[in-house]
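[Solved] Which block belongs to which protein?

Original post:
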Amino acid sequence: MAKPRKAPKYRNSKCEHNGIKFDSEKERSRWFHLIQLQAAGRIRDLQLQVPFVLTERKRRDDGTWERASKYVADFVYIDVATGKQVVEDVKSIATRKNRTYVQKRKQMLAVHDITIKEI
């Protein structure tokens, strides 16, 4: 007998649209909004799930490797009005407090000088 599925930790519902998988309905909704902004010419170069390296892969003293640390942004685009790159992450109030996310948000600022826009 199959085990009943456990509810997601943050109560999000994973979903899909045209073969694109989203972690939540809120993220999918934001994608639709950004598509509209791009069509209207307010943003350009919209990308989904863009990885940023925070720390490179390094060899330890014992010869083993420490893997690289990455942050994957939900959306990255250029704001046409300012010409600046915008990195967005769709977060609930609970996930904004997640310690791993907070650490990666701080590393993005320190390493890439990028402030993540939380939606």
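(Second protein starts here: sequence line, then its structure tokens.)
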Amino acid sequence: MLDIGVTKLLIIGGIALVVIGPERLPKVARMAGTLLGRAQRYVSDVKAEVNRSIEIEEINKMKAQFDDAARDIDRSVNDSMNQIGTGLDGSVDDGSSSGSSSSSIDPYLNGTGWEPPPPEYRHPGKKWRVKKGAMPQWYKQREGVRRHVQSGAARVQRHTPRRLG
């Protein structure tokens, strides 16, 4: 940046002392320091924003490359599945002409679209929202342990003596 040494700073400080005066020099120096700090923060914010935008561009490029690779893989899988499907269709046609019944063929391949039913949902039987304490209720009752939460107002009302009149 700027090549400012100690001697140059002393010369600038001496000139500022003569021109500004000893009474106003601390205020001016404080103001110059705050302005310099603001400028440094502004420059660092701009640098951070530029770095963020560069990173976003790189991420978008990587995403585009990933999407292209995924599309290529999808195409190759679909092509191979189509080739396998046409090969199976040919073998199914050959098998049906030789007198084999269609019931012996796998239901996925004969074009009926039959799929096995999904497994049924079974509830685990647990009460997830109920907190179970480690100490049994009968022990809490016998020892006088609080089992319910009380608000501060309820606690004060409970422990204030009642008037007899």
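Accepted answer:
You had them paired correctly. Confirming on the second one: The helical segments are 6-20, 25-97, 137-143, 152-159.
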